[in-house]
Amino acid sequence: MAEDAQSSPFIKNLASSDKRTRDSALASLRAFLSSRSEISELDLLKLWKGLFYCLWMQDKPAHQQALSRSPR
User: Fold this and answer.
1) Which of 4, 5, 52, 56 shows a CA-CA span of 20 to 30 A to 41?
2) Residue 1: pLDDT band by 50, 70, 90 thresholds?
3) DSSP states of 10-52 as a string?
């Protein structure tokens, strides 16, 4: 399972400075999570780190709030 998450490009792309790349990575992440029934702790830590940087790369606090509240 750790290899699946590591080889998935969305983890690296979550921290991209390009908004389109981040949005695409979030869409891929949603699909990935909906297809998995179990995820290892290591994979969850990697995903957490990617999501942290995804929020960090947002330009303004209002954008961070919108992303964190997004139901998509």
Assistant:
1) 56
2) very low
3) HHHHTT-SSHHHHHHHHHHHHHHHHH-S---HHHHHHHHHHHH
